[in-house]
Amino acid sequence: MKATIGGKLKGRKTRRHKETKLNLVSLMDIFTILVFFLLVNSSDVEVLQADKTITLPESTSTQKPETTTVVRVNGEQLIVGNRMIAKVADIPTNEDQIEPLLNELKYLASRAEPLPEEKAAVGRPVTILGDEEVPYALLKQIMNTCAAADYRDIDLAVTQTSPQDPAAPAAGQ
């Protein structure tokens, strides 16, 4: 039997307009794998506020810093949090403490909650980000000022590098 012209047209029309179906099972599998991948590979790295004017010294330390008050110093400025406290050129080198820094740290301590008894002996925590070119005398002044303002739990921020093999010869020798 031959198909009529109307039957042929109807057959073509149904073939052209087939309903397409999206298989969501595969898509869900991909998203499930992606979620597990991101959960496993998310790290607990503490990222301090980036400052392009500060080049941190390198260290092989594996201990992670806590979130604390951050004091940043580069060749030009002394900054606490996001607030510029003083210009490095204006800091007197013959004094043990930096007065504007001391005032700012005391102000921050007055706004914070009181320290518990077990932490009172250690003092408040502070992290110092100092450029590797900053002289030690200035870092010493900053640390003395922090201690005078009851910020005695001092951490110095560094860039973490992989530990070197002690048996391997030192680079550059």
Automatic annotation (TrEMBL):
The keyword Thylakoid does not apply. Keywords: Cell membrane, Membrane, Protein transport, Transmembrane, Transmembrane helix, Transport. It is found in: Cell membrane. It is a single-pass membrane protein; Single-pass type II membrane protein. The chain crosses the membrane at residues 21-40. It holds the Pfam family ExbD. Belongs to the ExbD/TolR family. This is Biopolymer transporter ExbD. It comes from Microbulbifer elongatus.
